[in-house]
Design goal:
By secondary structure, the chain is mainly α. The chain has seven domains: about 170 residues, P-loop containing nucleotide triphosphate hydrolases (Rossmann fold); about 60 residues; about 70 residues, no CATH class; about 70 residues, no CATH class; about 100 residues, Serine Threonine Protein Phosphatase 5, Tetratricopeptide repeat (Alpha Horseshoe); about 240 residues, Alpha Horseshoe (Serine Threonine Protein Phosphatase 5, Tetratricopeptide repeat), CATH 1.25.40; about 60 residues, Orthogonal Bundle (Arc Repressor Mutant, subunit A). It is built from 48 helices and eleven strands. It has a five-stranded parallel beta sheet, sandwiched between helices. Strands 6-8-7 form a three-stranded mixed beta sheet. The radius of gyration is 38 Å and the shape is elongated. The mean pLDDT is about 85.
Length: about 900
């Protein structure tokens, strides 16, 4: 009776009502196996304990053959004569027979309450149904309780259904034994196993769809066949098999069906758990109209159900059992047939791929050729489907086969796109260890270049792409792929002059190149111009690349120009536009199934958060980016994430966290990886060393900050907030000429780009620090970057204090303190409080209002917003889009929400939210 508390309460109510001298009727509706018999047995036992006269029977299929037979059999327990049934066999004696039964019940109920139960009423004959209708009406004032149970089906209306509907309209109580919920399924699983089930056992139990009969049969069968072992009170599934108990139950159910219906169900099972009537009709070479009667019978018998889009097997375990009962050779042939017609129809879904895979076997050249064709068809839109297909083809291909290398190349390409770069690199290296004929050799080198670029090894990537381009008679499509791989790798090269020259040559003759090559060239040229400080021109090129990619080929869109443009806009602190671009970039990346770049969008999101002063969100997103990079092997994006984590940790004063990130970065430098964000990481490392350095200068720090003019310019464009810090540190360490060079470079950038406020402010800040000019520092405090505004105000306070303007200095320090505290820059705020103390002004440590550790009041503002949206039913992705955060950030906050509210699911969260909204 697990999960039947409310139903059992209804039974109790009926027995109490009848025991008090009033008639009552309870209608029980349930599918097969939902526990009707158990409920009736417990009700009868409870009634006997209460002193009832109890009688009842289960109607069998033969009940239709003899009028009143079910009632007469049931009433024999309280004195009915079997002769009544024979009397009722003559139609003119039916009413007298019913009257005799009424009299019997009247007599017995005068002595004590009576409970009459009748199961399987759907099989009752018309005379029995008529008698029930009459008896219920005639005994409405007698202490007789009735429990009538029937099996409900999907597509059939019987006389019993009409009777139940009428009784419901006349006031009868009705319950439906629905499938067990998750909690009840877990409890019943524990009951049967007498142990705590592991997750695999629970997943297997869930395949019964909450049907108690199937669940018990499954678990007891698994125990009998030793598929479950119990040790120390823990039940563990050691292999997943449909036990003979379940097979026998399903076999018995199939044997009761008509031959045509059974055949339809068996073929449908090979199609899948859910299937379309059109596919089934095509497979059986029938029209959907011709299949209608058999489908309706299968639904009426509860084997199939109808959803809004397809027909499905009601219980997954039944579906699995039917599939396993079909001979393997037959299954394989049908899978092959299904895969072929779906492929011919042009519907290469994941399901179609599964059929093709299931229908293939070693040595079957035709089947393997179909897998090749399907993988090529899936590769542009669904690399994960293509990977599934090609990996199976490779498993069935002998290494000596001429097609093995071609299939290996496809596998490498799909692994790269889906984000398994380590496996892809290992596979391609093994393939290239021996001579490879062209053009497959060039194809493998192009794939290698793409892998190495994403792994942050730009020089190696360039070498592989150049080797591929040097191949004679390279097909046009491969030449374009090689050129794109080279151009993307060149975006990370220190020699931007050579890279820009190649991009310019390509753009100068656009008719010679495909759209992907032209877009990659524009991205490369935009990156080059951005690094040189030609910002307007860079943005123009990047916008052109984005515009061309919108309607471009799949290969063109996989160059991800939106990310390049969003990165530049983030540098320029045009964060709203950058966020919009990133959102659309992530949607496109997801639609292209290009998981290898997932860490890139996440790392850029972290940068946007950092630039907006949202340190916690920035750190959370950066940690997510590192996790994604670790899963995929996309080391290209790791320095971006590390630089964000280190900068956020520096501002919050978590020096241990900074040390951890910088140690990881130093290890990558030792590996010789060249990546775009190396400069940002290098500055974060220098800032960490400066924070730890003793007063009086640090030669090691000066050595760290030694960089070329080009490197400095690129750094100040991509991290303008570092200009003032560089000047301050260089002056403090006796490197005045070097500090002047920084001022000159940032001033030149600002002069050449007057429309970019972030550079104007950065230049004013650097000059103000070098000259100790409060007016310039006040000008710098108009920066679009909140942390830079606070830093400029702090430096302004220092300059004013040095000039003796104490009151003005205090004002600037207070403004800086408020900004630092608002954005969580704890370490910077502590430094400003120290400055204020030195001039005799004490400020209390700013903190948020004290919050309890649990409950709604413990949630931060961000957590409250996210909790409210989750309680409204929005998914993590929908919440992310609504709040301009990433899915990883939402998941991070929701974990804290669940912990603080002490809930374990969204259902509980919704309940708490509703209760909170009610007036107290």
């Amino acid at each position: 009776m697990r999960g039947r508390d409310s139903e059992w309460e209804t039974v109790h109510g009926l027995l109490t009502k009848t025991g008090d001298g009033r008639a009552g009727v309870l209608l029980v509706n349930a599918e097969t196996g939902m526990g009707r018999s158990l409920l009736l047995a417990k009700a009868a036992a409870e009634a006997e304990v209460r002193g009832f006269a109890v009688t009842g029977r289960s109607v069998t299929g033969l009940g239709r053959l003899a009028p009143l037979e079910p009632l007469v059999s049931a009433f024999q327990d309280i004195g009915a004569s079997p002769a009544i049934a024979y009397t009722a066999a003559a139609s003119e004696r039916l009413l007298p027979a019913i009257e005799e039964l009424r009299a019997l019940l009247t007599e017995r109920s005068a002595e004590r309450p009576v409970l009459v139960w009748l199961d399987d009423v759907h099989d009752a004959d018309p005379a029995t149904l008529l008698a029930l209708k009459m008896l219920l009406a005639q005994l409405a004032a007698a202490p007789v309780g009735w429990i009538l149970a029937r099996q409900i089906t999907a597509e059939r209306t019987t006389e019993a259904d009409l009777l139940f509907e009428q009784l419901r309209n006349e006031g009868a109580r009705s319950i439906e034994l629905r499938p067990l919920d998750h909690e009840a399924t877990v409890q019943l699983t524990r009951d049967v196993l007498r142990a705590e089930p592991d997750q695999e056992v629970l997943r297997t139990a869930a395949q019964t769809g909450g049907n108690p009969l199937l669940l018990v049969e499954l678990l007891e069968g698994l125990l009998e066949e030793e598929a479950i072992v119990i040790e120390d009170g823990q039940a563990r599934l050691i292999w997943n098999v449909v036990p003979m108990r379940v097979r026998t139950t399903v076999q018995r159910r199939l044997d009761e069906l008509k031959p045509d219906t059974r055949r339809l169900i068996e073929v449908a099972a090979i199609l899948g758990l859910c299937f379309s009537a059109e596919d089934l009709a095509e497979l059986l070479d029938r029209t959907p109209v011709e299949l209608l009667p058999t489908i309706q019978e299968a639904m009426a018998e509860g084997v199939l159900i109808e959803t809004s889009t397809a027909a499905c097997f009601r219980h997954e375990i039944v579906w699995q059992t039917i599939v396993q009962m079909i001979p393997m050779t037959v299954r394989q042939a049908v899978h092959r047939q299904i895969g072929e017609f779906l492929l011919e129809r042009g519907e290469l879904t994941a399901a179609a791929a599964e059929h093709l895979i299931a229908g293939a076997s070693r040595g079957d050249a035709r089947a393997l050729s179909r897998l090749d064709r399907a993988a090529a068809q899936a590769l542009p839109s669904s690399p994960s489907t293509a990977l599934h297909l090609i990996e199976r083809a490779l498993q069935l291909t002998d290494r000596r086969d001429a097609d093995w290398l071609t299939r290996t190349a496809t596998a490498v390409e799909t692994l790269t796109l889906t984000g398994n770069l380590e496996k892809a690199e290992s596979m391609v290296n093994a393939a290239l260890a021996e001579p490879v004929p062209m053009p497959t050799g060039a194809r493998l080198r192009i794939a290698t270049a793409t892998i190495l670029h994403l792994r942050g090894r730009a020089a190696e990537a360039q070498a592989q792409a150049v080797d591929a381009l040097a191949a004679a008679d390279l097909p046009a499509d491969m030449r374009e792929q090689a050129e794109v791989a080279l151009l993307l790798a060149l975006t990370a090269t220190p020699d931007q002059r050579t890279a820009a020259q190649r991009a310019s040559e390509i753009l100068g003759k656009p008719e010679r190149s495909g759209d992907a090559t032209l877009i990659a060239a524009r991205i490369l040229l935009a990156v080059s111009h951005w690094g040189k400080g030609d910002l307007q021109e860079a943005l123009g090129l990047a916008r052109e690349a984005v515009g061309e990619a919108v309607l471009g080929s799949v290969q063109a869109r996989r160059t991800h120009p939106r990310l390049a443009l969003a990165s530049m806009l983030t540098d320029a602190r045009r964060l709203e536009e950058a966020q919009d671009l990133l959102r659309s970039a992530e949607q496109e990346r997801s639609s292209l199934d290009h998981h290898a770049w997932a860490a890139g969008t996440s790392a850029l999101q972290a940068r946007i958060h950092l630039a907006g002063g949202r340190l916690l969100d920035a750190a959370t997103e950066a940690a997510g980016a590192l996790r994604l990079a670790g899963e995929s092997g996309a080391d290209l994006f790791v320095p971006t994430a590390l630089s964000v984590l280190a900068t956020a940790a520096l501002r919050t004063g978590d020096m241990n966290a900074v040390a951890d990130q910088m140690e990881r970065f130093a290890a990558r430098l030792a590996e010789g990886q060249s990546v775009p964000d190396t400069l940002r990481c290098t500055i974060a490392l220098a800032q960490y060393e400066e924070a730890r350095a003793a007063p009086g200068g640090s030669p090691a720090l000066l050595a760290r900050l030694r960089m070329s003019h080009d490197q400095c310019r690129r750094l100040l464009v991509t991290a303008p907030e570092t200009a003032a810090w560089l000047v301050r540190v260089l002056v403090a360490n006796g490197a005045g000429p070097q500090a002047d060079d920084v001022v000159a470079i940032v001033s030149d950038l600002a002069g050449r780009n007057p429309r970019f406020a972030f550079l104007t402010s950065a230049a004013a800040h650097a000059r103000g620090v070098r000259r100790k000019d409060a007016a310039l520092l006040d000008e710098a405090a108009r920066s679009p970057d909140p942390w830079s505004r606070a830093s400029a105000l702090e430096d302004c306070g220092v300059a004013l204090e040095d000039s003796g303007a104490r009151a003005d200095a205090v004002q600037r320090f207070d403004q800086a303190l408020e900004l630092y505290q608002r954005h969580g820059a704890v370490r910077d705020a502590a430094r400003v409080r120290s400055r204020l103390r030195e001039i005799g002004v004490r400020r209390r440590h700013w903190s948020r209002r004290a919050r309890p550790e649990t409950g709604w009041a413990s949630l931060t503002e961000s957590e409250q917003k996210i909790a409210e949206l989750a309680a409204q039913g929005l998914t993590n992705r929908q919440i992310a889009e609504r709040l301009f955060l990433s899915v990883h950030t939402i998941a991070f906050h929701l974990r804290h929400v669940f912990r603080k509210l002490e809930v374990g699911s969204r259902v509980e969260l919704t309940r708490l939210s509703l209760e909170r909204g009610r007036p107290g």
